[in-house]
Amino acid sequence: MFVLVNLKTYPCDPVAVADAVRDVDESTDARLAVAPQAADLARVAETGVETWAQHVDPIEHGSNTGHTLAESVADAGAVGTLINHSERRLKLADIDGSVRAAERAGLETVVCANNPEQIGAAAALGPDAVAVEPPELIGTGTPVSQADPDIVEDAVEAADNVDSEVSVLCGAGISTGDDVVAAGDLGAEGVLLASGVAKADDPQAALEDLVDPL
Ligand SMILES: O=C[C@H](O)COP(=O)(O)O
Prior knowledge:
The protein is α/β, with parallel strands linked by helices. Helices cover 39% and strands 16% of the residues.
């Protein structure tokens, strides 16, 4: 299972969480990575943890003030990027452009979507993976894998119908090892989570619990 920890803009210490993710990654067969804010990418990557961006824009080098260039993200040490997170929605053409920009920079891609219908559309753009996240469950602590298992199974089917090479993650409310196991049982190859780790009093203990049954 792939466990991708999105730090959003939570007021955590990104390097401390990165150290914890790296240490727990070394103790498990699961694959762990962390997605800090763009400004924190380089110092997080320096910890040795697998580092992801939260977003890249559909642009090239040039006059794009305030945008995030995929090549700069890669130069900072990221190996992948989220695209179209529920809190950073893009138009369809811009999702496509961001996937192409990420590919150009050698970044792995996870395109997020709200529901199985959008997952099918996202998979058609050829990312490495898609992540289904019902927005109403994000940050609630109520896990999608238990609250809405059908959406995960339907997302897996929708992606498979379009491109069986595209992996499916699920996210929203995932915070325990049981949640991760339930996601895997529904066909997801990974989970995207945030508050369960970034807002935990002890992020390392939260991560250890997440991977314990894997
Ligand atoms: O990127 C992570 C997702 O939005 C899930 O967030 P959450 O784990 O706080 O529900």
